[in-house]
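Re: [ENG-882] Designed sequences occasionally contain unexpected residues at chain ends

Forwarding the minimal case from QA. Structure tokens:
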């Protein structure tokens, strides 16, 4: 297992002071010509999330990653917090499971990253991976 950082991911999430209570969106993007050699069980850190952020939703989009390849979206504490292992053998878009009672909304008490875990088989190396994450900051209670 190797941990990669998406080169197109922002260096830092937007400042929370300027966006208290407003829905924020951040996009992590690993382009098709990323030059990485990806393997089964690799983790790609897609976006940084600031302390205090409450993640509301995630949308994962990939190219055809190859037969038997699955993707999960989560963090270092729960690798499938938002999206459980889902087939991305063909080009696919997956949104957070709306029936999940554990995933979103989830409040981060410290800065973290939201990651994509590749499993099932070695993925194709020339396919793009995009993760859109929506969160709020500066609210007192988890919904």
């Amino acid at each position: 297992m190797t941990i990669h950082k998406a080169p197109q991911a922002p260096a830092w999430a937007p400042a929370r002071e300027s966006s208290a209570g407003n829905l924020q969106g951040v996009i992590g993007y690993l382009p098709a010509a990323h030059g990485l050699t990806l393997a089964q069980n690799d983790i790609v850190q897609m976006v940084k999330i600031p302390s205090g952020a409450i993640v509301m939703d995630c949308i994962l989009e990939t190219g055809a990653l190859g037969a038997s390849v699955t993707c999960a979206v989560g963090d270092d504490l729960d690798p499938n917090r938002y999206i459980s292992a889902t087939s991305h053998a063909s080009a696919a878009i997956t949104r957070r499971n709306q029936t999940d009672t554990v995933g979103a909304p989830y409040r981060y008490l410290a800065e973290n990253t939201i990651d994509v875990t590749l499993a099932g088989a070695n993925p194709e190396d020339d396919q793009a991976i995009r993760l859109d994450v929506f969160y709020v900051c500066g609210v007192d209670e988890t919904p």
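QA comment: On inspection the terminal residues look reasonable. The beta strands are 3-5, 24-30, 43-49, 54-62, 70-74, 83-87, 92-95, 106-107, 112-119, 129-136. Proposing we downgrade this to a documentation issue.
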